[in-house]
Design goal:
GO terms for molecular function: damaged DNA binding; DNA-directed DNA polymerase activity; magnesium ion binding. Belongs to the DNA polymerase type-Y family. This protein is an alpha+beta fold. The longest helix is centred in the C-terminal third of the chain and has 22 residues. Strand 10 and strand 11 form a beta hairpin. The protein starts with 9 loop residues before the first strand and ends with a helix. It contains 14 helices and 12 strands.
Length: 369
């Protein structure tokens, strides 16, 4: 049975090299130069790269020393997240002039549903153009946009004419657009799935569309049904203005590899205290504690434990992290440790639960020796 495809008018706005562009905006001496935000220390990682740096192959999440080898003239600057949040708030205010259906994905990108908008403009393409122009005039930065019938296609389209461009995929063009798309561009297709599809001769949307739902489910499990629908332009996820946070975390990368568990516990205490501050600020608590370990060979491991009550206190976070740390022997020396809390209580009772959790923790700690 064919699933109906509601034709909403969705815009995906993506700021161009946001962090790096903000730095160049605030410091004109950096304009036109290869720039990396973060990554300046021995173990630093690049958070963002200007387009001048990207020409050399510098990318976000790349170790700073690798970026420096690719571009010897690369300039490193420390991230200023308070400034990025300030600029992001100004941009979001512009979005809200057009629609209340704004779903931020991060500081530098968001979905807008302009099917019915405050300007009464029937053209999502013209709205996107106007928004981008306002961002440039009022903030001084450029943005790119994708416009189509759902969030998935709009997000893919926003990457087509970067930087400072936009692309519209009209309803009548959706089928051809998706058929010509490389499968790695489809939401939910990671590197492992991409390799598997390539081995099966599935390279493009057209190849994927040629497979039955039964076939895709057999080889890709529950995701198979998702691939079957999305390649046909069926993506029913709505723009949700109030996206609930699913987790909160904090992590630290060490300047030198760490092998001592005692030193790891000292670092975890600092991380737990930072996570507590973030939880208090967000007024949430959670039940699932996850310890993230990145070894010196860059392999990643996570260990989790779900508690029977909500927590937000650093002492309980640390005790749980200690238990997870000693859960099994370390495979190697460690370069990064992180803690996150998920299974959050983000509803109306969140503040009450935080208070109850903290009271419970105080009582519990009194009986610890």
């Amino acid at each position: 049975m064919e699933i109906s495809k509601p034709h909403r008018k969705i815009i995906h706005v993506d700021m161009d090299a946001f962090y790096a562009s903000v730095e160049q905006l605030d410091n004109p001496d950096l304009k036109g130069k290869p720039l990396a935000v973060g990554g300046g220390s021995k173990r630093g990682v690049v958070s963002a790269a200007s387009y001048e740096a990207r020409k050399y192959g510098v990318r976000s999440a790349m170790p700073g020393y690798t970026a420096q080898k690719l571009c010897p003239e690369l300039i490193f600057v420390k991230p200023r997240f308070d400034r990025y949040k300030e600029i992001s708030a100004k941009i979001r205010k512009i979005f809200l002039d057009y629609t209340d259906l704004v779903e931020p994905l991060s500081l530098d990108e968001a979905y807008l549903d302009v099917t019915e908008n405050k300007k009464g403009n029937p053209s999502a393409t013209l709205i996107a153009k106007e928004i981008r122009q306002r961002i440039f005039e009022e903030v001084g930065l450029t943005a790119s946009a994708g416009i189509s019938i759902n969030k998935f296609i709009a997000k893919v389209a926003s990457d087509y004419n970067k930087p400072n461009g936009q692309k519209t995929v009209n309803p009548e063009d959706v089928e051809a657009f998706l058929e010509n798309l490389d499968v790695k561009k489809f939401y939910g297709v990671g590197k492992v799935t991409q390799a598997k599809m390539y081995e099966m001769g599935i390279y493009t949307g057209k190849d994927l569309k040629g497979k039955s739902e039964a076939f895709l489910t057999e080889y890709f499990g529950k995701s198979g049904a998702h691939y079957y629908r999305i390649v046909r332009g069926i993506h029913l996820s709505e723009v949700k203005p109030n996206r609930e946070r699913k987790s909160l975390g904090a992590e630290r990368t060490f300047s030198e590899n760490v092998a001592s568990e005692i030193y790891m516990l000292e670092r975890l205490q600092n991380i737990a205290e930072e996570l507590q501050r973030r939880l208090k600020k967000s007024k949430v608590a959670g039940r699932t504690v996850t310890l993230k370990i990145k070894y010196s060979d860059f392999t990643l491991q996570t260990r989790s434990k779900t508690l029977p009550y909500y927590i937000s206190d650093a002492d309980i976070l640390l005790e749980t992290a200690k238990e997870l740390l000693y859960q099994e022997k370390m495979k190697n020396s460690v370069r990064l440790l992180g803690l996150s809390l998920s299974n959050l209580n983000t509803g109306k009772e969140a503040s009450k639960k935080v208070k109850e959790a903290n009271e419970f923790q105080v009582v519990q700690l009194k009986f610890e020796f």
